[in-house]
Amino acid sequence: MSDKDTKKQYIKEQLLKRESEAKTVRKIVLISVASILVLCLAGALGGYFYIQSALKPVDPGNEKVTKVTIPIGSSVSGISNILEDKGIIKDARVFRYYTKFKNESGFQAGEYEFSPSMKLNEITASLKTGKVMQSAALKITIPEGKQLDQIAGILAEKAKLKKQDVWKTLNDKAFIKKMQSQYPQLLKQDIYGKNIKYPLEGYLFPATYSYHEKHPTVEDLITPMLEKQDEILLQYRDSMAKKKLSPHKLLTMASLIEEEATEKTHRESIASVFYNRLETGMPLQTDPTVLYAKGSHQKRVLYKDLEVKSPYNTYQNTGLPPGPIANAGTSSIEAALNPSDTKYLYFLAASDGKVYFSKSLEEHNKLKAEHITNKK
């Protein structure tokens, strides 16, 4: 055989070898991909069948009645855990998601009789008819517009706790992670933003809460507040999606409105000023953010205060601050979702509590001279 034939034979053998190797690699890749797909499918099917199972009665043939006590002040999360512990439902988390999906609420404290054969819709219907068996041992009111450190003080005073202990828990990473696992649609990762001062700021809904324990823990105190905030925002999920507002952005905007509003204020108009400024790239220039940046509760903002270096200072930075600066009530949340259709870029709060709106700096300065400067 000539050298030329030998080379051809060698090249042919190498090509056949490479083709064989390529086939082997393709087989390995196909097998790997197929294995991954099978595992994913198995996981998805497993999750699907598990949820379907959890939505069914624990034991359709077991009608043995179990007495269940739902204490005053119990959240949906607390009720879910009680029902699971008593063997009435299969999975507390699935039950919580079921109530949210079905928009079930208004559950009552009281004494109930449940059986493992009951369906979830029968259980939720029964929970709305409970008879209260005990009076609240403790009631705490959280006013609108309070900041996290102020709420910590209220809780400490009413529940006979040390404020530093309450404050420590409110900012404890393990505690916050636990709350995130319970309310994943409310407490998303943006509460850990780079410049966030306190992750739970603005997330504790202002209302009056009843507790059946004489000496509740901080977790007992906070859980109903997060539960309520979660329920409130669930009512507005369609509006939030339409305006492309996450819970964090909505509560941030609502907190600004809450801090600027007075009893005589049309909150929707204040909201329109903030949105108009955001659209034009103007800084929001709202005084409460300056005070929040300083960490003070002074009555007036001085010119020197406007220079404070902080991402929360909306005189120095454009856009929304990193997060909420207080806890907003329903009226401010609704204003953030439904601002008035105006061209206003300025508003001025007079000493009588009335707020004046204007479209230009010239008009704003004129109103300022009339209602602020001339009143001094």
TrEMBL record:
It comes from Peribacillus deserti. This is Endolytic murein transglycosylase. The chain crosses the membrane at residues 28-51. It catalyses: a peptidoglycan chain = a peptidoglycan chain with N-acetyl-1,6-anhydromuramyl-[peptide] at the reducing end + a peptidoglycan chain with N-acetylglucosamine at the non-reducing end. Belongs to the transglycosylase MltG family. Keywords: Cell membrane, Cell wall biogenesis/degradation, Lyase, Membrane, Transmembrane, Transmembrane helix. GO terms for molecular function: lytic endotransglycosylase activity. Pfam families: YceG. One of its GO terms (biological process) is cell wall organization.
